[in-house]
Design brief:
By secondary structure, the chain is α+β, with helices and mostly antiparallel strands. The chain contains two helices and two strands.
């Protein structure tokens, strides 16, 4: 769902999925690449996203 939001909302600049235990490295990458205007992706306490990805 988040990928679709980014893809179809071309002006979205901020997405905060902090504390979402289901977000993975792959999911974070997909969100980050889905919108050209994205400036901030909040990943606080997304434990499946490795710090090396950030």
């Amino acid at each position: 769902a988040l990928i679709a939001i980014g893809r179809y909302s071309m002006t979205i600049e901020t997405v905060d999925v902090g504390w979402c235990k289901e977000i993975t490295d792959h999911g974070a990458t997909q969100i980050a690449q889905s919108s050209k205007s994205l400036r901030y992706l909040g990943l606080m306490r997304c434990d499946q996203v490795r710090s090396t990805w950030v």
